[in-house]
Specification:
91 residues; mainly alpha; 30s Ribosomal Protein S18; 41% helix; elongated
């Protein structure tokens, strides 16, 4: 009986599940978008977090060229009150 208890108490470490991350891509290059419209607030919300801050390239996968255009469009939309400067919960 002692041998059975010892065997039942032995626990093996489960392998850590490794998440397969998707390859990040620039949605502008993939869709062929040349111009980022600052008047389209719903589209620009995809590049903002809950507080209204612009998400970095490393999270969105946007290329540097289009990240600059997105940032400029968000700033223009904020100036025209299409997007808020600061918010509690945007999404």
């Amino acid at each position: 009986m002692a041998a059975n208890n010892e065997q039942s108490e032995i626990r093996y470490l489960n392998p850590v599940s490794v998440d397969v991350k998707k390859k990040k891509y620039c949605r502008f290059k993939k869709s062929g978008i040349k111009y980022v419209d600052y008047k389209d607030g719903e589209f620009l919300k995809k590049f903002l977090n809950e507080q209204g801050k612009i998400l970095p390239r490393r999270l969105t996968g946007t290329s540097q060229k289009y990240q600059k255009k997105v940032a400029q469009a968000v700033k223009r939309a904020r100036h025209l009150a299409i997007l808020p400067f600061v918010t509690d919960m945007m999404k």
